[in-house]
Design brief:
CATH architecture of the largest domain: 3-Layer(aba) Sandwich
Largest sheet: 4 strands, parallel
CATH class of the largest domain: Alpha Beta
Structural class: alpha/beta
Helix content: 40-55%
Shape: globular
């Protein structure tokens, strides 16, 4: 007899609306996660609740208003589309659900729905291509915190990352090939940044700055190193797109201070413009759906930086969104 299987797709989350109050609520939940800001509890509470959120909510609200569409947040729109498209691709023994790590649809509410449905197997798939404690790790921790109280705990499969999956890579390649790559002077693979201390925890006996995972990927030691998998993702994509090594840069965006992964994406954009690059292509392989960090930070803010420093055009490669190959990738991840 075939097992009744529930697939739980998860993404980071989005405010309910771009209004200041909803953005504030979202930031409170997100930034109070001990894996996101991994400092002592009391210091985190003071920093987040008394400094960051009160001063950041209003400015973030303005940016979210630029992102918002008449149908809502792109992250939520594409999440629902992907859920429905994947459901159509799977047989009747599968049921697909969507939840967000922060805000709605909440993990607590969706997992309660799954508990009442009593599947034989639960596949938890955070849609983060590269593993990081602050994203994938936090999502798994929250799921286990909820599930551990269930009377009946089904067989559980955790999909921890898929940065090297052919379907994931080929979807990005398809989106890039909508443009003539010969027209571009340089390419940037931009990933969400992380504090160095978080990356260092993956290699407890070695400092990240002393690692050479940007040059050589070693699966036995680097598989859960975020920095290493970002460089490996970029290398695999560059090979598929025939981009020579000297024409691309791996960089990290959305930093809070200087003690984050380098080089910083905005600095690389400025440097390329000042070196004479006129047309720049930027990839965002850490994001499966267009969101604040892609559409606004890269598409608008970096585009302006590039032009202000002498460049002509910055082109953002769209995210996986609801691309058919992305749906096939998810199907493969849950069925094989």
């Amino acid at each position: 007899m075939s097992k009744k299987t529930t697939v739980l797709l998860l993404n980071l989350g989005t405010p309910k609306s771009p209004n200041v109050s909803d953005v504030r609520t979202y930031l409170f939940e997100f930034l109070n996660d001990r894996r996101v800001i991994d400092i002592p509890w009391l210091l985190r509470k003071i920093l987040v609740n008394l400094i960051i959120v009160p001063f950041r909510a209003k400015g973030s609200s303005k940016i979210y208003k630029q992102l918002w569409t008449k149908d809502g947040s792109p992250l939520m729109i594409y999440g629902e589309k992907v859920k429905d498209l994947l459901q159509k691709e799977l047989d009747k023994n599968f049921k697909v659900e969507l939840a967000m790590r922060y805000q709605e649809p909440s993990m607590k509410r969706v997992l309660e729905k799954i508990r009442l449905d009593m599947p034989d197997k639960l596949i938890i798939l955070p849609m983060y291509p590269q593993y990081a404690s602050s994203t994938t790790g936090s999502t798994f921790e929250k799921a286990m915190e909820i599930i551990r109280s269930w009377e009946v705990i089904p067989e559980i499969k955790l999909v921890n990352q898929f940065f090297d999956h052919e379907g994931y890579l080929n979807t990005i390649v398809d989106n890039a090939n909508k443009h003539d790559l010969n027209d571009f002077d340089h390419f940037i693979f931009s990933y969400h940044g992380l504090p160095l201390r978080q990356v260092n925890k993956v290699h407890p006996n070695k400092n990240c700055k002393d690692c050479d995972c940007d040059k050589q990927f070693r699966p036995d030691t680097d598989y859960f190193c975020y920095r290493a998998t970002c460089y490996e993702t970029s290398k695999l994509l560059a090979e598929k797109l025939n981009i020579p090594k000297e024409k691309y840069t791996v960089a990290f965006q959305s930093r809070l201070d200087k003690n984050w992964l380098e080089p910083f994406s905005d600095k690389v954009v400025i440097e390329q413009a000042q070196k004479g690059s006129k047309k720049l292509m930027v990839f965002s392989p850490a994001f499966v759906a267009d969101c604040l960090e892609t559409t606004i930070e890269i598409g608008l803010e970096y585009g302006e930086l590039f032009e202000e420093n002498g460049g002509n055009e910055l082109v953002l490669v769209e995210s996986l969104n609801d691309h058919p190959k992305w749906i096939e990738t998810l199907k493969d991840l849950v069925t094989k």
